[in-house]
Amino acid sequence: MRAPCACRRRPTPCEIAALSLIRCLRLCALLLVLPFAPGTALAAPEGGAWELAGDRGGTRVWKRQVPNSPFVEFRAETTMRTSLSALMNLFYDLEAAPRWIDHTRRVRALRRDDATREYVLLLETDMPWPIKDRDAVIKGSWKQDPQTLAVMLRGKSADGVWPENPAYIRNTIRSDWTFVPLGGGDVRVVMEGHVDPRGNLPGWAVNMLIQESPFATLANMRRMLADKRRQSEPHDGITEPSPDFQPPR
After folding, report:
1. Is the pLDDT of residue 6 over 70?
2. How far is CA 128 from CA 20, 25, 133, in A?
3. Four-residue CA torsion sign, 21, 27, 29, 31
4. Which of 12-16, 80-84, 210-214 has the lowest mean pLDDT?
5. What pLDDT, on the 0 to 100 scale, is given for residue 24?
6. Best exposed site among 62, 104, 168, 211 by fewest CB in 10 Å?
């Protein structure tokens, strides 16, 4: 029997580029941050059963296939000791976004209407050479359930809102966040998302590490919220649970 060869094939430039992009996309983590207003394009995908992709550090991540897309959808869930206002203030702190959204160069507010709780943001992602940089326009909104006090943020790509920059490739994104107060100062944080990075990127490569991005995003979020100064500021329109709050069963 011939001994197996100890050498391994070197990855091609295309494979190296694809893997580099994945590390930068990190789920385009970026893109999962922002909610949406009704009526935008890109309907929420209806996939099959969720498959557990990872469970560590108090965070669980699931993935599932999306019809007519080579890229999987993901869902992540964890529990944090924080206030609802602190979570919302972090989302609205655009200058801090690059510190907790992986590989984000900048987030700009294109439009913001606090009365309707809607806004439009432009996110720019810095990619390693030779991958072309990405951007995304997210139309967002949020609401709070008056009974459960859960805060729901919904986000989707918005076409025709902002002209495309030839220096970037525009992503297509769906992003959902839900903050569910559990009582005793704990909040369940749930994030779901799907991203199509566009361009000539193989689905197998993007999906290889797509489940890692939620771990990084939520870990960064937890670190940011550990700053006590963020816990002391209320957010307009948010009702915090009372000290004896019990979530509805």
Report:
1. no
2. 7, 10, 8
3. positive
4. 12-16
5. 47
6. 168
Give tens-digit pLDDT for 200-225.
766 766 666 666 778 888 999 999 99
Per-residue pLDDT, 15: 54
- Contact between 84 and 37 under an 8 Å Cβ cutoff? The reply is no
Phi, psi dihedrals of residue 246, rounded to the nearest 5°: -125, 125
Spell 126-151 as b/e; 16+ CB within 10 A means b: ebeeebeebbbbbbbbbebeeeebbb
Whole-number average pLDDT of the chain: 81
The alpha carbon of residue 147 and the mean position of all alpha carbons in its chain are separated, in whole angstroms, by 26
pTM of the model: 0.80
Residue entry with tokens 């809607």: 118
DSSP letter string over 8-29?
A: -PPPPHHHHHHHHHHHHHTTTG
Distance CA 102, CA 138 (A): 17
Query: 107: which 2 tokens?
Result: 């987030």
- Domains observed in the chain: 31-40+55-231 (3.30.530.20)
Residue 43 is predicted with a pLDDT of 38
* CA 224 remoteness from chain centre: 16
What are 42's two structure tokens?
A: 């890109």
